[in-house]
Amino acid sequence: MSPTHGTVPPMDTSNTINLLLLVVTAIAAAFALWQAITASRSRRDAQQANVEAAEHERSALRAAQESAASSTRSADAAERQAAAAERALHGQDPFVFERLGQTRWKVTNRTGGPAFFRVVEGQPGLIQVEEENLNGRQNGGSFHINFGGGLTDPASTDVMIGWQTQEGDLKYFTHTIP
């Protein structure tokens, strides 16, 4: 029997198998495309989350730095207030600092008696005392220190002077020089 014109021949087994394979391949391709789109969206979301986390960390770091700076300023202010209260309570400063040049200072004893020095220091390496023997400086006597002048030196520093009075009392005085 031969097919007549206008009629569709029946599908044989190999054509049916090929058609089924074509449908399965199309479904697998659609699934692979869906997975690729989902992975791309997940990667974009993860990158955005990383950017947001980094910005949050920078904000937290800035806030911590500002808080630390504020605490330092508060502590410095409290220290200056305590020193002012101490001076008001006892009258004048026990030592007077006079600037002689850009980096040279004259420190004069105003303790009312001789001072037997135990400590003259500031931040390590910033203060240099010119005289070697400071003991027995009478009231009104002075010595010289050098501070600053270097490119990395701070604008100011605290100078702490520790001395022993004639009676044997150990005392300390701190002064900030610009």
CATH topology of the largest domain: Immunoglobulin-like
Major sheet: 4 strands, antiparallel
Mean pLDDT across the residues is 82
Low-confidence stretches: none
Large-scale geometry: rod-shaped
Q: What percentage of the residues does DSSP assign to strands (E)?
A: 15-25%
* Radius of gyration, CA atoms, in whole angstroms: 42 Å
Label the structural class.
alpha+beta
- Strand order across the biggest sheet? 1-2-5-4
Per CATH, the class of the largest domain reads Mainly Beta
What is the number of E strands?
7
Report helical residue fraction: 40-55%
How far is the first residue's CA from the last residue's CA? Answer: 117 Å
Query: Helical region count?
Result: 1
Can you walk me through this structure?
With 178 residues, the chain is an alpha+beta fold. It has two domains: 14-91; 93-177, Immunoglobulin-like, CATH 2.60.40.1220. It has one helix and seven strands; from the N terminus they run αβββββββ. The protein has one helix at residues 13-90; strands at residues 95-99, 104-109, 116-121, 127-129, 142-147, 157-164, 170-177. It has a four-stranded antiparallel sheet with strand order 1-2-5-4, with no helix packed on it. A three-stranded antiparallel sheet has the order 3-6-7, with no helix packed on it. A hairpin with a 5-residue loop joins β6 and β7 (170-177). The protein starts with 12 loop residues before the first helix and ends with a strand.
